């Protein structure tokens, strides 16, 4: 509450200051109107006023800021027509320029009257200094006028700068030292160039004793105006190019983020986009509005608002230039420091799927180009939200179908087996004690059925779990498996990895991990070993896995015969997996000499890189 009162108080002070400057500037304009005299050179005055308007409309951009060179034209206008006509012409040019830009009336009035006040005060102060100091020195007229130009420039820039700085300090929006420093550098560059240009004009005019006419005005100032126009258009082209690039980058990153289910990818993408300082994203889900994301100058404790149904009334882009809380639906989420909001309805095939709202801390900060870029972004975001909603619905259907499948399998498989076992046991229980032999047969048969059902349950559980290499990656999955074996059994395991590791397909990583896992299990159960050496080598054409132990070994021939008669996950399954990938599984073992298992999977690094480059270039 104290923060809101502070912001409101600063806004009142800023408004009072704006109205005060505007009032004093209006007095200066009215005084100039009454004290001005009819000019004998209206064409020259008109040309100079038009040039001032053009220079104000096309400022020279330096970095993210801009400077105007209108001071260069104020000098000759003051020499030729006096301060009063200069004030009127500059104010008219400023009002016309701001009207073309469609700036708010308050801003137009303040800038125009502040310019009139600065010119008037700068002229009066420079004349006072000339009269008090310079005249008594008996300087040459040329030097006296040049010093007068310097004084006028210093006073004009100082008054302008102080007026702007005081307004920025009074406003609740942050005004950093870095912003102040950059602004003063631009002011210094502008003043230096204007003063140099004025000195050049004055010296040439003084030397040749020429009179200012239309040709002279065009000769001296048309190049300056042309430079401003060309610079402004060049800068605008660069801005549009950068805007399009940023828009492409943000939509691309956002597509990846939403497709991966990571909506918070949007936070990083929108950071600094078009100078946005706060934003909120709502999505419509089954008729209800949900706040999906917010960042920047927003309240952390607000997640929804009771008037969100009013979003339905916003059919197109809606801009709030001077925002106050309660002016628009859902605006409770934004802090009071925000002054401009733009509402962008997210529609797909005329269906409203969401609402994106962006804010800035300055009033009327969203220009036409910003709104167009945000509208393009909103179209893309709407499609992404609709896709996200469809994917979510599809996932729900898949989950429901999988649940139904598991229910059917349990009902038709495990449940039927258990019901049959219970029936046989109950039947056996009712038999007489003399038929104990039949009883033993029933129990033995039931135990086998239960073991089979238990295996099916374990297999179902195993199939539902994400594979370790998918969840952790191959390296981490191997490390975890080795640590688990070390902790459970007294076994010294050394793991080595050679070559430059690279990402493999899931099927290859699975075969490597399964082979390693089964090898370790066989060592623990049968080998009676106390040392194991594991090597994973990434070669140019292959990936090699080697597991070697110092156990008792076994006869491979006898083991293969046993595996065929008793199918299990052991050596036979390991070999089948390797054959599916075109890999080679080699087992070297003999009684008393340990066992060495070698898996060689073809995986050409050059071929994969070439394939990837073809995909990228295509």
Helix content: 55-70%
The number of helices is: 17
Sheet bearing the most strands, described? Answer: 5 strands, antiparallel
The secondary structure category is alpha+beta
- Strand percentage lies at 5-15%
Sheet with most strands: strand arrangement: 4-3-7-6-5
Could you say which overall geometry the principal axes of the C-alpha atoms support? elongated
Rounded mean pLDDT score: 78
- Specify Rg, calculated over alpha carbons: 41 Å
Amino-to-carboxy terminus distance:
59 Å
Count of strand segments:
12
Short characterization:
This protein has 618 residues and is α+β, with helices and mostly antiparallel strands. Helix content is 63%, strand content 13%.
Describe this structure in words.
- The protein has 618 residues and is an alpha+beta fold.
- 63% of the residues lie in helices and 13% in strands.
- The strands form three sheets. The chain has a five-stranded antiparallel sheet. A five-stranded mixed sheet has the order 8-9-10-12-11, covered by helices on one side.
- β1 and β2 (65-67) form a beta hairpin.
- α2 runs parallel beside α8 and α10 (368-430) runs antiparallel to α11.
- The longest helix is centred in the middle third of the chain and has 63 residues, at 368-430.
- The radius of gyration is 41 Å and the shape is elongated.
């Amino acid at each position: 509450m104290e923060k809101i009162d502070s912001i409101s108080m600063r806004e009142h002070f800023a408004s009072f200051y704006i109205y005060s400057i505007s009032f004093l500037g209006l007095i200066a304009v009215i005084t100039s109107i009454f004290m001005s005299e009819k000019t004998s050179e209206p064409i020259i005055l008109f040309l100079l006023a038009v040039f001032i308007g053009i220079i104000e409309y096309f400022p020279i951009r330096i970095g993210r800021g801009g400077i105007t060179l209108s001071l260069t034209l104020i000098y000759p206008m003051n020499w030729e027509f006096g301060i009063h006509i200069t004030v009127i012409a500059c104010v008219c040019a400023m009002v016309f320029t701001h009207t073309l830009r469609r700036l708010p009336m308050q801003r137009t009035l303040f800038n125009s009257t502040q310019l009139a006040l600065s010119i008037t005060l700068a002229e009066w102060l420079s004349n006072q200094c000339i009269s008090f100091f310079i005249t008594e020195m008996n300087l040459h007229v040329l030097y006296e006028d040049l010093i007068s130009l310097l004084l006028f420039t210093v006073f004009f820039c100082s008054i302008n700068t102080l007026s702007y700085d005081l307004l920025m300090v009074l406003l609740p929006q942050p005004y950093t030292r870095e912003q102040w420093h950059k602004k003063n550098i631009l002011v210094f560059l502008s003043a230096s160039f204007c003063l140099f240009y004025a000195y050049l004009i004055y010296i040439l005019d003084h030397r040749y004793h020429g009179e200012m006419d239309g040709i002279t005005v065009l000769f001296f100032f048309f190049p300056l105006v042309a430079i401003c126009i060309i610079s402004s258009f060049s800068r605008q082209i660069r801005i549009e190019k950068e805007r399009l690039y940023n828009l492409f980058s943000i939509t691309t990153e956002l597509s990846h983020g939403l497709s991966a289910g990571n909506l918070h990818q949007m936070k990083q993408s929108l950071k600094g986009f078009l100078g946005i300082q706060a934003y909120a994203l709502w999505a419509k889900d089954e008729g209800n509005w949900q706040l999906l994301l917010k960042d920047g100058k927003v309240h952390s404790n607000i997640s929804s608002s009771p008037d969100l149904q009013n979003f339905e009334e916003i059919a197109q882009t809606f801009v709030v230039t001077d925002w106050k809380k309660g002016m628009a639906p859902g605006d409770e989420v934004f802090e009071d420091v925000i002054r401009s909001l733009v509402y962008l309805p997210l529609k797909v095939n005329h269906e409203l799927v969401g609402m994106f709202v962006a804010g800035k801390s300055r009033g009327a900060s969203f220009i036409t180009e910003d709104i167009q870029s945000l509208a393009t972004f909103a179209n893309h975001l709407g499609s992404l939200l609709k896709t996200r909603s469809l994917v979510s619905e599809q996932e729900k259907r898949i989950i429901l179908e999988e649940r139904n499948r598991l229910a059917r399998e349990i009902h038709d498989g495990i449940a039927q087996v258990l019901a049959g076992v219970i029936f046989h046991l109950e039947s056996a229980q009712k038999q007489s004690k003399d038929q104990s032999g039949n009883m033993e047969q029933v129990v033995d048969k039931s135990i086998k059925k239960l073991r089979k059902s238990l295996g099916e349950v374990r297999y179902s559980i195993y199939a539902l779990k994400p594979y370790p290499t998918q969840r952790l990656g191959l390296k981490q999955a191997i490390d975890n498996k080795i640590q688990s074996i070390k902790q459970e059994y007294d076994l010294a395991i050394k793991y080595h990895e050679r070559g430059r590791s690279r990402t493999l397909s899931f099927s290859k990583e699975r075969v490597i991990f399964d082979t390693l896992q089964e090898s370790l299990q066989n060592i623990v159960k049968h080998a009676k070993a106390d040392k194991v050496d594991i090597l994973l080598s990434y070669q140019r054409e292959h990936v090699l896995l080697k597991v070697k132990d110092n156990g008792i070994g076994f006869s491979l021939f006898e083991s293969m015969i046993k595996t065929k008669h008793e199918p299990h996950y052991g050596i036979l399954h390991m070999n089948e997996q390797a054959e599916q990938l075109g890999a080679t599984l080699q087992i070297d073992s003999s009684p008393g000499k340990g066992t060495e298992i070698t898996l060689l999977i073809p995986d050409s690094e050059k071929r994969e890189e070439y394939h990837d480059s073809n995909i990228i270039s295509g």
